[in-house]
Amino acid sequence: MTRTLAVAALLLTATGCGSGPAVARSQWFTMGTVAAIQAQSMEEAKKGRELIQPLFERVNTLFSTWQETSELSRLNQAAGKNELTPLSPEVATLVAAALQIAEASDGAFNPLAGSLMSFWGFTQERAPSALSSEEALQEARKLADWHRIQFYPTSTPVRLYLPHPGMKLDLGAIAKGYAVDLAYNTLTQVGTTNALIDLGGNLRAIGEASPGRGGWRTGIRNPFVDGSCTAQFLMTNGEAVATSGNYERFVEIANKRYGHIMDVRTGRPVTGMAGVTVVAPSAMLADALSTTLFVLGPEAGVAFLKHYPGCEAIWIPDNPEKLTLLCTPGIAKRLTPIGQKQFISRVISAKDNNARWSEAE
Ligand code: ADP
Ligand code: MG
Question: Which residues keep their CB under 5 angstroms from ion ligand 2?
Fold first, then answer.
């Protein structure tokens, strides 16, 4: 009747399988998930962790929707109170990036999805035991109109105002990727040559796992079998990967499971998609796009991706009987199946805005 819990597969991020021969790994719990750094020796891993653990903590104190004193929570508490709130540089940066992606995706990515997250029970300890009325749903959906965010990026300091009580900024779809980029920048600045940063499945690679390997091998989770991967590829220096899945956070209301990614056009959690993985030049972009493409699905998603050169995607529709990976061409040619040929792979590419599908060889 009520809900199950938030994070189902903590240790099973994209690298939870198929990362090849053992490398040194240090991991810890933060931001409601597992963070890890891999390196060529335990000493390097620990040194890296010392540098990046405080960064992740700082991002959490800014963006957590669970901590009442976080900057984001304070912004949300000021909604409808006619106060222009000054933003820290980090929050200003992320709000600007989030609004840009909201605009480009026509709201598939929505930084005001917070009212719907609350409606569906993701911000409480327990989800509601029954669905609320359609009117209440439409009320929560109206509060998610991101066009109404008043954001003043050129004022000093940058300021923001949410004009209606109940409006809730939620940057959960982009903040972890942003944190990973901060870690990447810090590590490269101090001269780290080989490391893989992982924050709850948001990855960014520096160098290689061992001499001559050419990068870091990364697995694509099979969303239908706990702890197993279906394919892998080699992440090269600087590349980022993020995965959004309906299997990681969900609520159960009246015996039905609802995932944590909202289609704000309907006010309901997205259905039909099990997982989306994105490869991008930065972790922030990979994170934001994995959520956006989860909402858009492959047809609209592949057209949308034309605005993001250097980004590739894999969609896994929610069909456990027929594990299918729909891949953009750039990632299709880099994937190798793990174990038996256990999935159907198709290449999807955009031509004149119409998606074309073809069997991979
Ligand atoms: P995870 O946080 O599990 O890595 P995502 O990066 O896909 O997964 O982010 C999902 C989170 O983003 C949700 O938990 C919620 O906080 C927020 N969110 C939900 N729907 C949307 C949406 N349509 N656009 C932007 N953010 C969303
Ligand atoms: Mg995301």
Answer: 173, 287, 290-291
Beta pairing class for 324-327 and 344-351? parallel
Does the pTM surpass 0.90? The reply is yes
Tell me if 42 sits within 8 A of 230, measured CB to CB: no
**Alpha carbon of 105 to ligand 2 centroid (Å):** 14
- Which long-range contacts (C-beta less than 8 Å, at least 24 apart) are formed by 133-141? 137/267, 137/268, 138/267, 140/115, 140/116, 140/166, 140/267, 141/115, 141/116, 141/264, 141/266, 141/267
Residue 248's identity, in one-letter code, is E
Distance CA 16, CA 249 (A): 17
Give the per-residue pLDDT at 170: 98
* Nearest ligand to the C-alpha atom of residue 294: 1
Q: Are 281 and 235 in contact (CB under 8 A)?
A: no
Q: Of all atoms in ligand 1, which is nearest to the CA of residue 290?
A: 7
Q: For 175-208, what is each residue's pLDDT tens digit?
A: 999 999 999 999 999 999 999 999 999 999 999 9
Is 114 near ligand 1, meaning CB less than 6 Å away? no
How far is ligand 1, taken at its centre, from the CA of residue 249, in Å? 10
The token pair that represents 173 in the structure block? 């779809």
Residue 170 near ligand 1, beta carbon < 6 Å: yes
Peptide bond into 163 cis (omega under 30): no
Spatial distance between the Cα atoms of 346 and 361, rounded to a whole number of angstroms? 9
Per-residue pLDDT tens over the stretch 1-23? 233 323 333 333 344 554 555 58
Q: What gap in Å lies between CA 235 and CA 14, rounded to an integer?
A: 12
118, 260, 284, 285: which to mutate for ligand 1, most atoms within 8 A of CB?
260
List helix spans (H) across 106-191. 114-119, 134-142, 175-189
Q: Dihedral angle at the C-alpha atoms of 232, 203, 290, 32, nearest 10 degrees?
A: 120
DSSP 177-221: HHHHHHHHHHHHHTT--SEEEEETTEEEEES-SSTTS-SEEEEEE
Place of tokens 């050129």: 154
**Sheet (strand 229-235) strand order:** 216-221, 229-235, 336-337
Beta bridge partners of 60: none
